[in-house]
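A favour, since you know our structure tokens better than I do. Would you make up a two-line entry for one protein for me to read? Write everything out right here, beneath this request.
=====
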Amino acid sequence: MNSAPERQAPERGGGSAQGNADTLPKLLLRNYRKYGADNVAIREKNMGIWESYTWADYYEIVRALTLAFLDLGLRPGDRVSIIGENKPHVYWFEVAAQAAGAAVVGIFADCTPPEVQHYAGHSGSRFAVCQDQEQVDKFLEIKDKLPELEKIIYWDPKGLWKYHHPDLLSFDRMVEIGRAAAEKNPGLFEECVARTKADDLAVFFYTSGTTGLPKAGMVTHRSLIGMAEGLNEVNNFQENEEYLSFLPIAWIAEQLFVACTLIYAMRANFPEKPETVQQNIREIGPEVVFFGPRLWEGLIRTIQVKMLDSSWLHRLFFNAALKIGYKMADLRMKGLRPGSSQALLFKLAHLLVFRNLRDNLGLRKTRVGYTGGGAVSPDVLRYFLAIGVTVKQLYGSSEVGIVTCHRDDHIKPETCGPPMSAVEIRTSDEGEIIIKTPNLFSGYFKQPEKTAEKVKDGWYYTEDFGHIDKDGQLVVMDRMEDLVTIAGGKKFSPQFCEIRLRFSPFIKDALALGRPDQDFIGALINIDLDNVGHWAETNKIPYTTFTDLSQKPQVIELIRKEIAKINDVLPEHSQIKKFINLHKEFDPDEAEMTRTRKLRRTFVEERFKELLDGIFGETREVEVVSQITYRDGRTGTTKSTITVNQV
């Protein structure tokens, strides 16, 4: 990088963590003036090497990109779409766009062209920032349908050398334009940053779209920073703490930590690619991590399967240590201190077993882990507490931010924790969770009628069903619309069953279902291909495809036993009596899941109606013809014979 300009004294004032720096660009400028080239702000694993960027580097890149945006005609109030995996460039382009007065629209990297068209078109984005050739191709395919889109900017040039589209622009070219502008007008960037205001729109968050087309929630700098400060009150982030940036930038959770890294000068670390996260996280040793429920569940499945493959002696030691860990976890969840003998046993278990296990998971130094964005089994939180990793459940949404979080001294795994300070939570007469927070979003873009439906007298209506327990902690049961009344008038929560099914090492996903005229619960099961495949190979069971493996009698028996175990912890009326091993995985590209991996329940129930009718009927086998949508838009069909199984 070029040498950093002379640093000025840091801005000070106010009672909050950021002082007078009330927008993300102002926070960057404050950190540059305070730390300059002395502290590393960002690290990225690139081509096998960790590359570091100081706060001075961060500042210089953002300044160049901001001035380039201005030179290209970006105006205050415009929108900039960003699509790609988490890389430093995402942070740089976001803060640069915001410094120019624009709002950022995050798009999930695995979105199809029609989905990208909806996000970029609905938001009226004038600029698109893409990671690589794959993402550029998506925008070029739909460019004619986006009349407001003027430029497509990319940062990874691989495969794009022979592209000569007039609207294409590289990251390097943007930096050249910006540096030339900085030489002509050295103070322009600081002037732009000074003009940003706390109530400027910072980010558009599109809802998951489980009940229709995604809506764009508008969030200001004030709200985003307020959310981060609320989380800090609970967890006390430290300067230079390592944070693993892994979640999609289109999700509120990652945007929350964009703000946290700027407010508290935490160090953001970016893995080389999604496939190397587990390896890279070991090298980083982050103190703070945030994974979705499915990744935490996946880590446990990995441990469980590896232990099944280990020697009897290793299993003996591990199970003994885990038993000690569970006792310690149960004490901690109740807010109790262990006795000296219990503490000594746990220390021994840590030295002999858990220390190496945590190191292999990349969680050796982890001070706090978070999960959110969907329900997680209490067994998952208890399991990680047992091995010495504190994982806290968060609850919130794009519209209200993070509103609850577990406290260190009282983690109740069946809850989402108590409310943050300044957040009020209550339930309606129907049991719907409603929230009042100073960090409320500014409404849905172009849809004031939808905003009015969700916000009444300052209260946000979540459409989630739950209650506040005797300790003041929030219990979220399910979506209001997903609660089912089965025969006998009993209420059934599908999510309550599904999160416990996913705790099995052999079950990746599940759809639990009840019907008003039936007195039992049925389930569609997605087997975990890696773990079940490994189990089949160990037991010398040959198979060819996912479908073939899922319908093997031995695999059906394996899943039957797993469901029987889970039934022991479910209420009697919620126990699963019949199931089908689905012949394919639930797929976001086929609209069966959202990009945050939530099931589109209504769509899935309609799509697999024939199978569900088989579960609740008398048939033993169902013939299915499935249409498959490939990433390039082509479609195909498969035929399968699926068995209906009793538990």
In short: The chain is about 40% helix and 20% strand.
